[in-house]
Amino acid sequence: MNFYMNTVDLIRKKRNGESLSEDEMRFLIHGYVHGSIPEYQMSAFLMAVYFRGMSDEETLTFTRLMLDSGKRIDLTDIPGRKVDKHSTGGVGDKVSLILAPLVASCKVPVPMISGRGLGHTGGTLDKLESIPGFRTTLTLEEYRNIIQRIGVVMMGQTSEIAPADKKMYALRDVTATVECIPLIAGSIMSKKLAEGIDALVLDIKTGRGAFMETYEKAIDLGTTLVKIGNGFGVRTIGFVTDMNEPLGIAVGNWLEVVESVHCLQGKRGRSDHSADLMEVTYTLSGAMVYLGGKANSIEEGIQVCRESIDSGRAYSKFLELVEAQGGDVESIENLSSYPLSTNIVEVKSPKGGFIQEIDSFELGQVSILLGAGRTKLDDPIDMKAGIVLRKKVGDSVMQGEPLAVLYTDKDSVVTEARHRVAQAYTITAVPSSRTSRIISMIDMEGVHPFN
Ligand code: URA
Hints:
Elements: H1 7-15, H2 22-33, H3 39-52, H4 56-68, E1 83-87, H5 95-105, E2 110-114, H6 124-129, H7 140-150, E3 152-156, H8 163-173, H9 181-193, E4 199-206, H10 215-231, E5 235-242, E6 250-251, H11 253-264, H12 275-291, H13 298-311, H14 313-324, H15 329-333, E7 343-348, E8 353-358, H16 360-370, E9 386-389, E10 396-397, E11 402-408, H17 414-424, E12 425-428, E13 438-443, E14 446-449
Parallel strand pairs: 1-4, 2-3, 4-5
Antiparallel strand pairs: 5-13, 6-9, 7-11, 8-10, 8-12, 9-11, 13-14
Bound molecules: uracil.
The site of uracil has 7 residues, from helix 9.
């Protein structure tokens, strides 16, 4: 390490578009985490990265330094190839709730570290915590014990996992430097690589309800993430999926648990409108089963997963997970025992026609208004609140028919929420059609069409 490094010189170097060496980057990250580099200098550095980017080599180094700021969990003594999934976040994206027990029920261990809701997107931890008693704060020892015993565990980031990311992410959030591909890639992958996994499947969302609105940006981010994962010896593949309408029918924590339980129970309780959710879930879980060595192709993996849902094995594994993490199994077995919102209000269609678009960004915002999400990190969440869609893209609708149902305890927001949800639907006289939510697949060979 060069002890004569000067933070201002390094900020200037990046500002001028030059690459930083490993020692220079270590000096910055180490200094920031240990308090010798103040937030105003790290903010300036992050903004320089935002405008100037990083080379592939710098991004890999940045990720390694973020990873090395904390512990890398060692799960090598647990048999089987451990595989996880990460999604860049969407509206109504409850895939992890279904996929983690599903893949574990196919004998592929799933150690999953998840996040909370961010902006208009929900977070897996908040959804799990809507199950009474479910604990997402675990010690590393509990994490190891649960995965060893039942083959699946789902918890939040601890202070031992990538602490540099924890501190830097909070700073990015308030300095308008979140939407930057090398910073996002380092942040996501440092946490995922710390989990002790052998392989990773990524869901990179694109469209109106996603952080990467354009397909080109999603491909850029996906390619960077795939290169980093494979660069660390973790076999990684990505899928770019469409977030131009909410996934499935429910937006809101407990409402999403209910939809997930219906999906895990197979055809008996599932709405036809959850078909897109299951398309994404089967594709990602099929890829995980393939990477976990329990199928010879992704397609075969998808078949194995379908059989696990149909046989009830996936649902049983979900109940085991709920019990292992302190959750109330009875509330899952008897979904109607959960308290209901004081306002349950239909949003009626202002006209007849065909649903062309549903603005998922706007529905994500309205769900926050109803109480389902946060505008500040420590805002409380109403677990019951949210939206259930009655109409999705491709449906026909008559004037006065319900488009959606709102759930909230907040009387004062009902009128505004009802108006905004109706406005979020684009209804035309021209028939519309449903398309696949899976747009393409990314691996080390490049980008491939997938369906
Ligand atoms: N999710 C993360 O974990 N980090 C980012 O930078 C963006 C999304």
